[in-house]
Design a protein that fits this description.
Layout lengths: L2 E2 L2 H19 L4 E7 L3 H16 L3 E7 L5 H12 L6 E4 L9 H7 L11 H8 L10 H14 L8 E5 L6 H10 L3 E5 L6 H4 L5 E4 L9 H4 L7 E4 L3 E3 L2 E3 L4 H4 L5 E2 L6 H24 L4
Parallel strand pairs: 1-11, 2-3, 2-4, 5-6, 5-7, 7-8, 8-11
Antiparallel strand pairs: 9-10
Helix pairs in contact: 1-11, 2-11, 6-7, 6-11
Length: 291
């Protein structure tokens, strides 16, 4: 029988651990969330992140600015947060308006406050499998933690993993993290000519495209019978939130699978609290001259 992976339960456990560490170490983590514009979805995500952070003892400041803010003005606001000793972590709520260069904005955040893990320094350390302390992007980190819960800490070596979607937020860093665990990784995207063929014998499948039910029973039929499916896709279909995977159609064909909602989403937010714990530790070391 297939395992339905309960992301909410895993996230709750992680958040309780983070809260205990914050209290034990007497840390004072404070997150600044930069929200550009009034997009309802972005505002909802910010509320969710705020509730999760405050529940574990992380202070949250929402820096709301207008949709038409000039890029230079936005960058100046970020610089102010960089030098604010009371701010231990900075998060830019995406997506940004089209006139704002997202990469430039991410590069403006100091790496030690980049709790989304998007700065080039953090991406570089991830790519190099660095032993230096750095931030992992929240969704890929949540995906890896979920997989470790299913496969075990050392259950990746030699497994065939397929990642569908090459975004810098989910797909690419997830592929790198799987390679760092010694998986054999295949990357696919909208240009892949025969996706079904690439899925043959896949033991791990991660998908993050936002294409409703892209992965159907026919595609799953060529995977390893015990394939672990992590669905990080989110979109609306018929007024309902769905993932990239036809959950009802494939749930009895796989070894384990995350639902949408209730799978990757809660883990992403839990990993944000983990990154904020790390950021608070960075700040504590700097304050005593050890960082």
């Amino acid at each position: 029988m297939s395992e339905i992976i309960d992301g909410r339960a895993m996230a709750l456990l992680i958040r309780s651990e983070v809260k205990a560490e914050i209290e034990k170490e007497r840390l004072e983590p404070n997150l600044a969330v930069v929200l550009v514009g009034n997009d309802p979805a972005s505002k909802a995500y910010v509320r969710m992140k705020r509730r999760a952070c405050e529940a574990v003892g992380i202070g949250v400041r929402v820096v709301a600015v207008s949709h038409d803010i000039e890029q230079e003005v936005l960058l100046k606001r970020i610089e102010e947060l960089n030098v604010d000793p009371l701010v231990t972590g900075i998060l830019i709520q995406l997506p940004l308006p089209s006139h704002i260069n997202t990469a430039h904005v991410n590069e403006t955040i100091r790496p030690e406050k980049d709790v989304d893990g998007f700065h080039a320094v953090n991406v570089g350390r991830l790519t190099l499998y660095s032993h230096e302390t750095y931030f992992h992007p929240c969704t890929p980190l949540g995906i890896l933690k979920t997989l470790k819960n299913v496969l075990g800490e050392n259950g990746f070596v030699g497994k065939k993993a397929v990642v569908v979607g090459q975004s810098m937020i989910v797909g690419r860093p997830t592929a790198i993290m799987l390679q760092n665990e010694f998986c054999t990784v295949t990357m696919c995207d909208k240009y892949t000519k025969d996706l079904k063929r690439e899925l043959e014998s896949a033991e791990i499948l991660v998908t993050a495209t936002g294409v409703p039910h892209l992965i159907d029973p026919d595609m799953i039929s060529v995977c390893d019978p015990g394939v672990v499916v992590i669905d990080a896709g989110f979109s609306k279909k018929g007024g309902k939130l769905v993932g990239d995977v036809d959950f009802e159609g494939v749930k009895d064909m796989v070894g384990a699978i995350t639902p949408v909602p209730g799978g990757v989403g809660p883990m992403t937010v839990a990993m944000l609290t983990r990154n904020m714990l790390k950021a608070a530790r960075f700040e504590k070391k700097r304050s005593v001259g050890l960082g």
